[in-house]
């Protein structure tokens, strides 16, 4: 786990050393153990290291013996042991136990096609002097971030946007990205709220040469076809794959543990971990002093079942004092306030360990959210025509619908936005997944948009803020491909979310944990907005210092807030999204 950064200048102009130092320093929290840098005329690759594997010899960049190939990465290659064993006895045999050297040797042997062999979470940069090309490679579902900006014949890249900003890229707001944020409650990849800064998309790589930039898709989830199997066969395959996924994610040369909420996902991971290690698994939970939102008793029940070394900390429910810090580390606003408790539990775990396993990804793969149950029990979702289904599902996941946005935006903001961008993102995903059943189409959309746009940003950025690595066994590509080969009806059955998955793990974790009602990792912000946070709302949205009033019609926003406070409407999500946008505007000060 690390942070990477660098550039490739097609005209072979250099970025000053002082600028590279600033790019590195801006992401030093991702890798506080040291800086590694390769730099020569017109190109640089840098790495801030968080030492996890081969603590003595794993320093990056890794450079080939002939000094023609340079590699840096952020992340972990979980099958690096098997890949290194395959190289034994060949001219490409590894000299260390570091997974980054495996990347170098595989690239030397197989070229860019080596990436298909990787099981991991990664953002990789490879510079090949022989052909004068830079490759920027991102993992299949975007567990690890990778951003870039291309202007004036120079491509600059970094694990975080703030690193790119340190290179001198102009800070201008991207209006189309603003519309995706207010439509979906997060900025949807490939866009960022900064004009000209984008994501390398999950499952893609960029190939940059002195005269061209090409984007290639190397993993296509939409190509997975449904398969017919018995329930027992699905359960057996799921359990065997998840067990191996957990096993290879326990490879670490530093202490590791797990987040434990007492929900089905984290309990399943901890249950399997407890069968694979010789000492009690270190587990971490935060509880809230408001019992209505406190999951710690469920976590304690799971901890007792698996005899873990359990740490729980009860904290104040109101953690909005962390909001600015969370947005700073994310580089963009998110309407999801669970970033803050995620930061707190990561901070708690970081006192003891450098690596944690989590249950991230299971809800999006196996239909764990109530939004699926609530929508797909409606006959319209099953029997309606394609166009109606897609339109109604888009409304189902939208924060502000199109008709509301016409009132929300100032006229000059509307002129700068192409409303088709937000629509076309979903339209393209529906088209790619047209051979899937409708539930799997919804899960596909969340896997391709929600995960890399929001739900995987949360563990990466909040973990990296305190220099801790998050590993998600459910996001092993074998689990993902298995999930999308399953028919949707065995995931959501008779109103039971994650139906087949819960059956598969009920023996491991017990039916009480497997079938307890899902509880979101959140706090009662909606009520606080009416009373406790009124001063904060007024300062952020309605004071003379408010910046968002240059983009939105604040009389319309104020009307929403009045209706919310009166209890006539619940505009919690809408108001907190606009507040997060204002915090971001104040923190990053982009040109409007």
Helices and strands, with pairings:
Elements lengths: L1 E8 L7 H9 L8 E7 L2 E7 L12 E2 L5 E9 L2 H8 L11 H12 L9 E9 L4 E6 L8 E5 L2 E5 L2 H5 L9 H10 L12 E3 L4 E5 L4 E5 L13 H18 L7 E4 L4 H13 L5 E7 L7 H10 L3 E7 L7 H8 L8 H11 L5 E3 L4 H5 L3 H7 L2 H5 L2 H11 L5 H7 L2 H5 L4 H13 L5 H18 L1 H9 L3 E3 L5 H9 L13 H11 L1 H4 L10 H6 L3 H9 L11 H12 L6 H17 L4
Parallel strand pairs: 13-14, 13-16, 14-15, 16-17
Antiparallel strand pairs: 1-3, 1-9, 2-3, 4-5, 5-6, 6-7, 7-11, 8-9, 8-10, 11-12
Structure overview:
The mean pLDDT is 94. The strands form three sheets. The chain has a six-stranded antiparallel β-sheet with strand order 2-3-1-9-8-10. With 592 residues, the protein is of the alpha+beta class. The protein is globular and about 70 Å long. 43% of the residues lie in helices and 16% in strands. The longest helix has 18 residues, at 231-248.
Task: List its salient traits.
single chain, alpha+beta, six-stranded antiparallel sheet, 26 helices, 16% strand
Q: How many E-type strands?
A: 17
Report strand %: 15-25%
Helix content: 40-55%
What is the helix tally? 26
Kindly report how far apart the N and C termini lie: 35 Å
Largest sheet: 6 strands, antiparallel
Rg is 23 Å
Strand order of the largest sheet: 2-3-1-9-8-10
From the spread of the alpha carbons, the general shape counts as globular
SS class = alpha+beta
Q: Averaged pLDDT, please?
A: 94
Give a short overview:
The chain is α+β, with helices and mostly antiparallel strands and 592 residues long. Helix content is 43%, strand content 16%.
């Amino acid at each position: 786990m690390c942070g990477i950064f660098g550039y490739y200048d097609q005209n072979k102009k250099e970025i000053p050393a002082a600028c590279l130092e600033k790019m590195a320093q801006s992401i030093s929290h991702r890798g506080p153990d040291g800086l590694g840098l390769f730099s020569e005329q017109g190109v640089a690759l840098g790495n801030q290291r968080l030492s996890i594997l081969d603590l003595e010899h794993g320093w990056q960049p890794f450079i080939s013996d002939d000094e023609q190939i340079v590699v840096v990465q952020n992340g972990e290659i979980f099958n690096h042991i098997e890949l290194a064993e395959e190289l034994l006895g060949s001219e490409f045999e590894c000299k260390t136990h570091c997974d980054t050297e495996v990347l170098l040797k595989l690239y030397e042997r197989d070229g860019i096609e080596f990436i298909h062999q990787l099981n991991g979470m990664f953002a990789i940069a490879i510079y090949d002097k022989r052909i004068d090309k830079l490759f920027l490679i991102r993992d299949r579902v975007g567990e690890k971030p990778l951003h870039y900006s291309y202007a004036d014949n120079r491509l600059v890249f970094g694990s975080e946007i703030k690193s790119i900003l340190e290179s001198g890229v102009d800070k201008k707001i991207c209006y189309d990205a603003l519309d995706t944020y207010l439509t979906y409650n997060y900025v949807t990849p490939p866009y960022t709220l900064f004009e000209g800064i984008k994501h390398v998309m999950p499952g893609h790589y960029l190939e940059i040469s002195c005269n061209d930039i090409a984007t290639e898709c190397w993993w296509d989830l939409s190509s997975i076809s449904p398969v017919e199997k018995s329930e027992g066969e699905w359960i057996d395959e799921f359990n065997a794959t998840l067990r191996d996924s957990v096993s290879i994610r326990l490879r670490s040369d530093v202490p590791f543990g797990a987040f434990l909420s007492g929900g089905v996902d984290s309990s399943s991971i901890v249950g399997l971990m407890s069968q694979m290690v010789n000492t009690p698994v270190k587990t971490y939970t935060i509880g809230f002093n408001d019992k209505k939102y406190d999951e710690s008793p469920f976590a304690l029940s799971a901890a007792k079942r698996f005899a873990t070394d359990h740490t729980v900390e009860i904290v104040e429910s109101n953690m909005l004092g962390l909001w600015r810090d969370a947005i700073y580390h994310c580089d963009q606003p998110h309407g999801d306030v669970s970033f803050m408790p995620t930061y707190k539990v990561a901070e708690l775990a970081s006192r003891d360990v450098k690596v944690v396993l989590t249950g991230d990804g299971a809800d999006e793969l196996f239909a764990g959210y109530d939004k699926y149950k609530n929508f797909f029990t409606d006959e319209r979702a099953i029997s309606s025509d394609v166009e109606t289904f897609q339109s109604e599902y888009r409304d189902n996941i939208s924060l502000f619908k199109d008709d509301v946005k016409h009132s929300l935006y100032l006229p000059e903001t509307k002129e700068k936005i192409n409303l088709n961008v937000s629509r076309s993102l979903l339209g393209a995903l529906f088209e790619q997944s047209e051979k899937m059943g409708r539930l799997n189409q919804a899960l596909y959309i969340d896997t391709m948009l929600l995960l890399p746009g929001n739900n995987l940003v949360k563990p990466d950025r909040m973990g990296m803020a305190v220099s801790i690595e998050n590993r998600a066994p459910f996001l092993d590509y074998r689990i993902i491909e298995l999930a999308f080969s399953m028919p949707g009806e065995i995931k959501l059955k008779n109103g039971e979310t994650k139906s087949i998955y819960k059956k598969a793990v009920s023996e491991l974790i017990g039916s009480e944990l497997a079938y307890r009602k899902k509880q979101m990792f959140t706090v009662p912000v909606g009520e606080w907005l009416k009373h406790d946070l009124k001063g904060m709302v007024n300062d952020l949205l309605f004071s003379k210092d408010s910046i968002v009033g240059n983009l939105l019609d604040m009389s319309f926003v104020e009307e929403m807030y009045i209706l919310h406070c009166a209890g006539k409407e619940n505009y919690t999500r809408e108001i907190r999204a606009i507040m997060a946008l204002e915090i971001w505007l104040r923190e990053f000060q982009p040109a409007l």
